[in-house]
Design the sequence.
């Protein structure tokens, strides 16, 4: 699908590249990254700040263990959601609803904790496994709703997934303002605090370690599903061409349902990692938009599960670096967000250049 | 990598019509413009770290880190805390270095605290309710640092956090009662309104205090009970919603005095617009002096200065005399002369202490200005409590269902104020209670935990 843009000087054509070597790909990303740093440096210099010091502060986030652990903690929900999105996007299924699926995962995890705390239905060692299963199922079910609508009625999933986000957020509001409110919480909209056995640090001492392990395992699973199973193959075929999938006799509806369930389920576990690893209870607005961040992360990583892990840690680091920059150099929060945005913009442009070639042709309009 | 291609192509396909150069140029231009816009909205001097150098130049400065939930440029909560920070820094006589992180989402406060500790902060002050649990967590992790959390209930003093953590709050309910007196004194329709943020105990007790005050003055004037209407906007900062709620209260409910819990002067601005149209509508200041937004419509209001509380904690840390405390700054706290003064010498309407009354409008009748001053002075010594029979013209205080909540010689205590979940009988709208109607909407047993639902609120005090 070459796109032509005709100008007075000549024609600019955007053509799809057929091949692009791995080395060239890495070089492009690196160049884009360095260029973005250069632009950031120029802007910092213009407003009278020392760019070298700012970069040192950002780099420190990835070198100082305390800050790195914080960054990893932040990156876990982003990573899990982005892994889920990678599956959906491979299927050409535009799931914008990771945020809502995160919230549903938080609801499920909290529900399990409350069942334990108020009815003592099972032993406390069962808490984390049950929470994980419940958050996966509820997050998955939330996305499955849109999958059903897509598969049976061909409803555009971008709209349904996005709109269900608000439903999930309001459902959390209802629960913490109402039935799930902590009776000893002076009426504040919070659930009870999770017992230690329901917190991620219960396993390996720190939520970052546990979370990282979970993220790597999840990435491995996603990688295996996509590259070594029939479902993964079918997901990719559906993503490339629905028509081909149908000609090949695949049950497209079933693939969409399964794919959307897996995608939402992973985001649901991301929600678990927020309530269980970061906050320790359910409360309104618990996720500051991690589900949307995950969309960027998944795209930056080129939907590769391993790169998703790396990209989300990088992103979590930038979130932490935002604070460090404010504290060390008195850069306003808006400026740190802008630095992040410039880096992402350049990397995205780099991704574009990997996929497309720009051809300039001499000669005016014909 | 190969298999990623199709999806990625579709993702980027959105931009395929645009030439690359255009994308980069537009992005950069936007980014630069956004940055400069952002930078100019925050005056550079507000970002400057305050340093006071004394003769002992070699002394190590006290380092204090603040975490704000909003931008310091808002007109309400975070702005107020930043003013408090500067106030305390100026008055602290020893070398001091304070720094802050603004707009920190509640889930990211851990990273913020680590950053501040990395900067060498001795004292960390977190200023949003949502930071409470993680502040306690880091207080445990760093036992040699000191932590203050604003607006929560966890502290070493309360026994639910480590000893190096304190809790503090600037409480307005007494001032809301005085606002109510002013409202009851000027209202002609006998209907007052309240634009309210969230149905949480803090806001509920402020509504109740305001309505009780309004009823006191109005009933004493006319013998009739006040009527009050509440509009919930479910937001702390939402100028547009506050605005339309204020207009609805005036136009549909016939309210002519509006109190509010929302961090911008929007409600006061609406009242001022009506004043300009020769319709008498009144409102108040909230957190800072907002008179300039409604010079005519401004009756009085509640103002907070967090500075004295912060200065107190600076002193404790620098002199190594820390004790964990749970402070509610009320009228009379942190003022030099903590005794009741005669009405003619009253300091009501002047800045003092942690919370104080905004200047009183001359439109309030003389005898009611005197009454407001009298109550203000009495509350310096806690001689008068709005939530008492005395605050309701000798009548017991009833809730909307008619149940008597306070009678005889009872006064509200900390527990009742902290967990108030009922509205006084003069309020027309019920409190948005999600329990019963939504239980019918969600018949699933697992969505409803009866043990939780039943014991919310006041159970423990009564």
Sequence:
């Amino acid at each position: 699908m070459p796109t032509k843009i005709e100008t007075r000087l000549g024609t600019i054509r955007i053509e799809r590249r057929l091949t692009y070597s791995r080395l060239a790909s890495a070089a492009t990303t690196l160049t884009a990254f360095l260029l973005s740093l250069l632009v950031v440096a120029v802007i910092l210099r213009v407003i009278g700040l020392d760019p070298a010091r700012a970069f040192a502060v950002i780099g420190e986030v990835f070198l100082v263990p305390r800050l790195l652990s914080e960054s990893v903690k932040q990156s876990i929900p982003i990573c899990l959601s982005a892994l889920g999105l990678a599956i959906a996007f491979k299927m050409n299924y535009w799931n914008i609803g990771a945020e809502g699926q995160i919230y549903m995962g938080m609801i499920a995890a909290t529900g399990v904790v409350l069942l334990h705390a108020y009815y003592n239905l099972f032993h406390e060692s069962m808490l984390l496994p049950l929470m994980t299963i419940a958050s996966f199922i509820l997050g998955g079910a939330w996305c499955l709703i849109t999958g059903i609508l897509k598969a049976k009625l061909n409803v555009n999933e971008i709209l349904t997934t996005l709109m269900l986000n608000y439903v999930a957020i309001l459902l959390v509001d209802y629960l913490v303002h109402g039935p799930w409110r902590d009776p000893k919480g002076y009426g504040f909209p919070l659930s009870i605090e999770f017992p230690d056995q329901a917190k991620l640090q219960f396993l390996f001492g720190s939520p970052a370690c546990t979370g990282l392990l979970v993220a790597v395992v999840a990435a491995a699973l996603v990688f295996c599903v996509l590259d070594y199973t029939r479902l993964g193959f079918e997901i990719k075929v559906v993503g490339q061409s629905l028509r081909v999938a149908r000609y090949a006799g695949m049950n497209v509806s079933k693939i969409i349902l399964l794919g959307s369930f897996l995608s939402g389920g992973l985001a649901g576990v991301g929600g678990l990692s927020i309530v269980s690893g970061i906050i320790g209870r359910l409360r309104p607005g618990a996720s500051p938009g991690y589900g949307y961040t995950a969309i960027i992360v998944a795209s930056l990583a080129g939907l590769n599960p391993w790169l998703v892990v790396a990209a989300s840690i990088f992103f979590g680091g930038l979130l932490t670096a935002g604070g460090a920059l404010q504290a060390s150099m008195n850069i306003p929060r808006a400026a740190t967000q802008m630095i992040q945005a410039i880096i992402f913009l350049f990397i995205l442009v780099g991704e574009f250049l990997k996929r497309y070639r720009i051809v300039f042709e001499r000669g005016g309009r014909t | 990598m190969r298999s990623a291609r199709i999806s990625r192509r579709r993702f980027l396909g959105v931009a395929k019509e645009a030439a690359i150069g255009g994308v980069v140029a537009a992005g950069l231009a936007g980014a630069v413009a956004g940055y400069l816009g952002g930078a100019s909205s925050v005056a550079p001097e507000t970002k400057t770290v305050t340093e006071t150098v004394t003769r002992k130049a070699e002394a190590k400065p006290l380092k204090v880190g603040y975490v704000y939930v909003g931008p310091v440029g808002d007109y309400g909560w975070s702005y107020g805390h930043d003013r408090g920070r500067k106030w305390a820094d100026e008055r602290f006589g020893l070398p001091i270095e304070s720094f802050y992180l603004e707009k920190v989402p509640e889930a990211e406060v851990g990273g913020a605290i680590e950053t501040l500790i990395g900067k060498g902060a001795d004292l960390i002050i977190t200023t949003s309710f949502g930071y409470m649990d993680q502040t306690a967590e880091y207080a445990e992790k760093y036992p040699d640092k000191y932590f203050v959390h604003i607006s929560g209930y966890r502290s070493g003093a309360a026994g639910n956090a480590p000893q190096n953590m304190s809790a503090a709050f600037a409480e307005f309910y007494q001032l809301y009662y005085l606002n109510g007196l002013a409202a009851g004194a000027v209202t002609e329709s006998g209907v007052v309104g309240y634009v309210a943020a969230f149905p949480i105990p803090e806001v509920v007790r402020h509504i109740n205090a305001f309505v009780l005050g309004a009823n006191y003055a109005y009933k004493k004037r006319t013998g009739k009970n006040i009527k009050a209407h509440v509009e919930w906007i479910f937001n702390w900062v939402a100028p547009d919603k506050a605005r339309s709620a204020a207009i609805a209260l005036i136009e549909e409910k016939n309210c002519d005095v509006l109190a509010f819990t929302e961090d911008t002067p929007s409600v006061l601005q609406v009242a001022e617009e009506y004043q300009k149209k020769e319709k008498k509508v009144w409102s108040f200041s909230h957190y800072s002096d907002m008179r300039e937004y409604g010079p005519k419509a401004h009756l009085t209001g509640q103002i907070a200065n967090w500075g004295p509380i912060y200065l107190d904690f600076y002193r404790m840390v620098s002199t190594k005399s820390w004790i964990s405390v749970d402070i509610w700054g009320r009228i009379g706290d942190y003022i030099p002369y903590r005794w009741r003064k005669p009405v003619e010498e009253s300091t009501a309407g002047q800045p003092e202490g942690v919370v104080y009354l905004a200047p009183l409008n001359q439109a309030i009748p003389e005898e009611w200005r005197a009454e407001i001053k009298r109550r203000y002075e009495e509350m310096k010594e806690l001689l008068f409590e709005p939530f008492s029979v005395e605050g309701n013209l000798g009548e017991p205080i009833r809730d909307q269902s008619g149940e008597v909540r306070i009678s005889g010689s009872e006064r509200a205590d900390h527990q009742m104020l902290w967990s108030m979940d009922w509205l006084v009988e003069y309020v027309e709208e019920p409190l948005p209670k999600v329990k019963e109607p939504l239980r019918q909407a969600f018949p699933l047993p697992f969505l409803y935990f009866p043990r939780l639902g039943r014991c919310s609120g006041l159970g423990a005090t009564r």
Q: What stands out?
A: Residues 107 and 131 of chain B are 8 Å apart (CA to CA). Residues 46-170 of chain B form a domain with the Rossmann fold fold (CATH 3.40.50.2300).
